[in-house]
Amino acid sequence: MYEFDWSSIPGALPLLGKGLLVTLEVTLTAIVVGIVWGTLLAVARLGANPLLAGLAAGYVNLFRSVPLVMVILWFYLIVPQLLKAVFGEGIADIRLTSALVAFALFEAAYYSEIIRAGIQSVPRGQVAAGLALGFTPAQTMRLIVLPQAFRNMVPLLLTQAIILFQDTSLVYVIGLSDFFGTAYKVGDRDGRLVELLLFAGAVYFAICFAASQVVRRLQSRGVQ
Amino acid sequence: MIEIKKVGKHYGHFQVLSDCTTAVAQGEVVVVCGPSGSGKSTLIKCVNGLEPFQSGDIVVDGTSLAAPGIDLPRLRARVGMVFQHFELFPHMSIMENLSIAQRKVLGRSADEARERGLKLLDRVGLRTQAEKYPGQLSGGQQQRVAIARALAMDPICMLFDEPTSALDPEMINEVLDVMVELARDGMTMMCVTHEMGFARRVAHRVIFMDQGRIVEDAAKEDFFGTPRSERAQLFLSKILRH
């Protein structure tokens, strides 16, 4: 019978906390950049300019057709030179930057599909009413359509954020010490891998389950 | 004020409007009626460029819609429009619905827009509802707000696209009353409606459309007295039977 020994966890809590911060940093960056960039992609895709619409569609289809793990590796292995050119030579650790960029660009493709559906869920009459008042098409999108679209989309956006939070654990492939990576390293170091991974799993579960309850409450409120 | 000249529109091979010609003078109230699918809503939406057309021209207060490089937002800001389904913005309070275009399009200050908005809410009898949201109002109240929202832009003319056809019967009159008052105040109006009582009370002219064509364009008295076209006679007998 395997003897559980949880004693290495209390001492590792500060390290694990730092790992959790990295996880949250990647998650929040990907949510914010993903929604902003995803909105632009969705608007371009639905817009009148066929060139922009085509480029946006190509981008979304490309990122949705490759595994996330590969995108993370691409940005770590293939494009660090580009990242250095953009962000300067002064980056101490390319791993975090490349993970942030990879997740933000990847998630934008998924967010853009959610946002596109949200925009299309706003009745066309609302657009006509906005235009009839003298708003430009861009103002109509910004002031009339997007606020309603986002209100309809909140549950879906949060669900995607929960999936994203879990997916950030994939950064272990580039050796970045996020929460999962830190738990793995501590467990490996102390020979207590099973305990640490069980503990990490429990933390992921607690956070995601709590968040999904929030989403459920939002959804049931939206139904009323 | 509004000149519609030989306007034609088609979707592929389907001709929605053919050779429509008419005009609305300043202060005139023109009712457009006809069976569903006759193109009356499409025609009125062409007047502020919500629907494009392929041939002919529409000139609103000297501005040609067919002219290249026409500033549509500028034109639309001067032409009020009321829709069948109200189309208030559900994420904004009634006051925000009335003031947002005044501020963002006309550049009025928040105070100015609010003052103008309250004045118009007074006019349609809904001043006390200013802080509510559209979903909290009845259909009739929403449509009155929609009229006030259009009037807040100080339009040179108003277009109504079946403003009462989505309303419960007991709410139709409160909307028509506002429209009658507006007509009596001298507003230039083009109304797509089946409310023949309204047409009798305030219209100067009635246009009857069928299959994308203007079949009859007559002074109110002539239209209701002796409609010349058989189609209009048939339509009137159907609509006025009960």
Rg over C-alpha atoms of chain B, rounded to the nearest angstrom? 18 Å
Secondary structure class of chain A reads mainly alpha
Q: What is the name of the CATH superfamily of chain A?
A: MetI-like
Per CATH, the architecture of chain A is Orthogonal Bundle
Specify the biggest β-sheet of chain B: 6 strands, mixed
Give the rounded overall mean pLDDT of chain A.
90
What is the helix/strand order of chain A? HHHHHHHHH
List how many beta strands of chain B DSSP finds.
10
Which runs of chain B of at least 5 residues are low in confidence (pLDDT < 50)? none
Radius of gyration of chain A: 21 Å
Number of strands of chain A: 0
In quaternary terms, these chains amount to heterodimer
The DSSP helix count of chain A reads 9
Given this structure, which CATH class of chain A is correct?
A: Mainly Alpha
Q: What is the percent of helical residues of chain A? A: over 70%
Care to describe what's here?
The complex is a heterodimer of chains A (224) and B (242). With 224 residues, chain A is mainly alpha-helical. Helix content of chain A is 82%, strand content 0%. The radius of gyration of chain A is 21 Å and the shape is globular. By secondary structure, chain B is of the alpha/beta class. Helix content of chain B is 38%, strand content 25%. Chain B contains nine helices and ten strands. In chain B, a hairpin with a 2-residue loop joins strand 1 (2-11) and strand 2. The A-B interface holds A 123, 125-126, 128-136, 139, 143-144, 147-148, 151 and B 45, 48, 50, 72-74, 76-81, 83, 85, 87-91, 100-101, 104-106, 149-150, 153.
Summary tags:
heterodimer, A: 224 residues, mainly alpha, MetI-like fold, globular, B: 242 residues, alpha/beta, four-stranded antiparallel beta sheet
What's the arrangement of secondary structure elements?
The complex is a heterodimer of chains A (224) and B (242).
Chain A: H1 8-46, H2 50-64, H3 68-78, H4 80-87, H5 94-120, H6 124-132, H7 137-167, H8 179-190, H9 193-223
Chain B: E1 2-11, E2 14-24, E3 29-33, H1 40-47, E4 55-60, E5 63-64, H2 72-78, E6 79-82, H3 94-104, H4 110-123, H5 139-151, E7 157-161, H6 169-184, E8 189-192, H7 196-202, E9 205-210, E10 213-219, H8 220-225, H9 230-239
Parallel strand pairs in B: 3-8, 3-9, 6-7, 7-8
Antiparallel strand pairs in B: 1-2, 1-4, 4-5, 9-10
Helix pairs in contact in B: 3-4, 3-5, 4-5, 5-6
